[in-house]
Amino acid sequence: MSLYQLHSNPESLYKYREAPRRVPSMAYELALRQYQKTGQRDPELERAIAQSPEWAYWYALNVIKGRWPEAESVIAQSPRCAYKYARYVIEGRWPEAESVIAQSPKWAFYYALQVIEDRWPEGEPAIATSPEWAYEYAMDIIGDRWPEAEPYIKQDPYWWSEYKEYFDIK
Length: 170
Known about the structure:
Shape: elongated
Strand content: under 5%
Radius of gyration: 21 Å
Order of helices and strands: HHHHHHHHHHHH
C-alpha cells in the first residue's frame, strides 16, 4: 500500500507519474495490467519490482509464470517469499535459498512439509525452537515424538498439552 493508493486524487501528488518506476507494489500492478493487455513485459517496471521479495515473487508467479533468475537473489532474502517461490514457482527444492528458509520455524516447517515432503535436518534447529511448529513437525512430518524439541515445546503450556495428548505421554 502506498500514499498514492490512499489519496482521493493521486494524480495531484508530487511525482505521481514517476511513482510506478520506484514503488514495487505500484510497478507490479502496472506491469501486470500492461502484460494482461499486451502480452509484453516492461524492463523498467521489472527493475522496480525486483527490489521487493514479495512483489518479485508475485511477478514471477503471475507474469513470468516461471523462474525469474534476475530477481531470485532478492526473493531469497525473505523466508516466506523464498518458500512460496520454491513451492509455487519452482515447484520443488530451491537449494540456493534453503539457508534463509531454515532460519524461520514456520517457513522451514512448511518447506519440509510441502516442498521436501520429508524431514529436513537443516531446518530442524529453527523449527525445534518454536513450540507450535515443533509440535506440527513432530505430528505431520516425523509422525512420532521429537525428543530434541520437547524442551522447547514444554515452554508453552498449550502446545505441550497438545503434544502430550497426541503422543499419549503421561
